[in-house]
Amino acid sequence: MSHKVPQIIRSQVARRAQFKCEYCLMPEELSFLPFQIDHIISLEHGGGSEIDNLAYSCPHCNQHKGSDLSTFLEHYQDIERLFNPRIDQWNGHFEVSSGEIRSISRIGKATVKLLRMNEPERLAIRRILAEVGLYP
Ligand SMILES: [Zn+2]
User: Is the pTM of this model over 0.85?
Assistant: First the structure.
């Protein structure tokens, strides 16, 4: 959801993220589609548009995340929240191997799953970028 965020805030969020998706680390300049402003805690759940609740996101991550805050892991009762770029360190929850994003925590696992970070098409693009040193 990208509405209600003024352009100056969008620019600040993009610069803070160094123009990379804060979930999958895809660089915007290598993406075919424009990046979006993600409300980490969605408006639907009462989150606001203050900069501390915003993240820079590729359209794939943002689309799959939607307004969700969590998902389940092994069982329906096994709920885990999603990665929050404002309070979590990326390297504490994920690692990259040949373009594949691997989770190293429960939060990472929930996020890789829900945001479908390793969908075949996305993985194929990241593998090519990794081979030429452009990812991560
Ligand atoms: Zn992404």
Answer: yes
